[in-house]
Amino acid sequence: MPSTPAVPASDVDVAAPTAMGGAGGRIALRERGTSFAALVIPPLLVFLVVIGAWILVSQVILAESKRFLLPPPWAVVNVAFLDGHNRAELFTSLWLTTKAAMVGLFLSIVIGMGTAIAMSQAKWVERSLYPYAVVLQTIPVLALVPLVGFTLGYNFSSRVFVVVLIALFPVITNTLFGLLSVDQGHHDLFSLHKGGRITRLVKLQLPAAMPAIFTGLRIAAGASVIGAVVGDFFFQQGTPGIGTLMNTYASELESERLYAAVILSSSLGIAVFLAVTWLERRVVGRWHTATRGTR
């Protein structure tokens, strides 16, 4: 029988990957372009709809006598952001609120993760501490304001305490959930190799719990900004935070500056949330289904 001509190995090894690599590269570029458009265009459209609805309500629906309740976007920009004095006042107060939020978030992460790790290592610790974590979450902040003020003073420390009070519970619950959700087969493998408690925690539980931990951090990131603004409302001694300015602007019917303060507070919350999300991508990567762009 006539033999089939042999194809040189170099033709297969070089030509096939080149062709596949070119097509794969084009597909990757196309998917990257699609994902970029999918990330940018929908939020941009929603933003334009919100701005359009804002202008419609302000200029058409509201009567002239009530237009001060919802000034148009250009009035907010002109009064709050283009005026040098108002802009400096807003951003100085925003910086103070940012510091309180970041310090409180850092303390919440340290205390919350430490508490969750302790509870994951011993059932009696979980039974002892978890009910108080729930109680801490359910206490109204208003009820603690006099006690916090008398103890810590009506200043920066009190604002940080409010941030910790609000942001601590999500860190504890999500970290504990992740640490306790490790597959039993993995635990058996570590037991087979006589892995100690610390080795099991560092090399198994903490890496496996990272997606759940970062879920709690994202929630705590938004809560930290809310806690800092709430703290500004209640503890107003010293340099005013952005929440203090909101209270002042509302009492003086300075609607343009009030809306500017609200926009800056929301922008701070979005920035902190995106920073935690970026850190999650760097730490967790794309190996976990929660971080994949599957939708």
What this model shows, in words?
This protein is mainly α and 295 residues long. The protein has two domains: 7-70; 72-291, MetI-like fold (Orthogonal Bundle). 81% of the residues lie in helices and 0% in strands. The protein contains ten helices and no strands. It has helices at residues 9-61, 73-81, 84-121, 123-138, 141-152, 156-180, 184-192, 197-234, 242-251, 255-284. The longest helix has 53 residues, at 9-61. Mean pLDDT is 79; it is low at 1-33 and 290-295.
Task: Indicate the overall shape.
Answer: globular
Count of runs of 4 or more consecutive helical residues: 10
Q: Specify the CATH architecture of the largest domain.
A: Orthogonal Bundle
Mean pLDDT: 79
Number of domains: 2
List low-confidence stretches: 1-33, 290-295
CATH superfamily of the largest domain: MetI-like
Which secondary structure elements does this structure contain, and how are they paired or packed?
Elements: H1 9-61, H2 73-81, H3 84-121, H4 123-138, H5 141-152, H6 156-180, H7 184-192, H8 197-234, H9 242-251, H10 255-284
Helix pairs in contact: 2-10, 3-4, 3-6, 3-8, 3-9, 3-10, 4-6, 5-6, 6-8, 8-9, 8-10, 9-10
Short description:
This protein has 295 residues and is mainly α. It is 81% helix and 0% strand.
Keywords:
about 300 residues, globular, MetI-like fold, mainly alpha, disordered C terminus
